[in-house]
Amino acid sequence: MVSSQVLVSAIVFWIIQWRSILCSAYIWNFALSSTLNNKVDYDNFHPRNIRAFKDRISQHNAIDKQEICKTDKSCGKGKFCDRHYGFCDRKRQSGQYCRRDGQCEHGLQCMFGKCTKSLKHGTIGARCRHDKDCGASMCCARQHGERICKAKLKIHAKCYVPQGGLEYSLNEMCPCDRGLTCKPTLKQKDDSPSWRFWSTFDHMRCSPG
């Protein structure tokens, strides 16, 4: 009976010891795998830190190899001068991010932050500066901050616009087409919340006269 109790006690003791060892190993592994305040410890030769170190070196080498520039002319063919960082970079293809037209390949323009195919002058979506730059029944209005040709509003189209503000300044709306006027449509008034919302926005339509 005594020997059985001793055996059980020994087993329990070793289980506790192994759990303590495993817990310590887990804590040390977590400490080595993690970095303090999301910073890489380059003195710690953990595989994650070694990879980060190699990435940092490759990035620095890539920057060192860049041609320093101030204008696009100082860069070679098919390149542009990144004026923010001051070095030459390859021109972007369709769908890639850009900050200006000069960063895109020939035949592309930088619209809404991406290189896209240039549109025919005066057509819907083409760049403009004034209404006269656009075709018939169009106006020159901002879309996400870019001035482009948009179609004027047709009959029964919603025509409400705010008095001003950032949202309107970034996304403008053309007026109603010739012969149409933006005015409230008739509807029986009531005091419901749906009427108050509808009467503020939805009732303004392009109508004849």
Automatic annotation (TrEMBL):
Keyword Translocase: no
Subcellular location: Secreted
InterPro entries: Dickkopf_N, DKK1-4
BP terms from Gene Ontology: negative regulation of canonical Wnt signaling pathway; Wnt signaling pathway
GO cellular component, one term: extracellular space
GO molecular function: co-receptor binding; receptor antagonist activity
Segments passing through the bilayer: 6-28
Residues annotated as domain Dickkopf N-terminal cysteine-rich: 69-116
Signal peptide as annotated in the record: none
UniProt KW keywords: Developmental protein, Disulfide bond, Membrane, Secreted, Signal, Transmembrane, Transmembrane helix, Wnt signaling pathway
Family the UniProt entry places it in: Belongs to the dickkopf family.
Name the record gives this protein: Dickkopf5 protein
Native source organism of the sequence: Terebratalia transversa
Gene behind this protein: dkk5
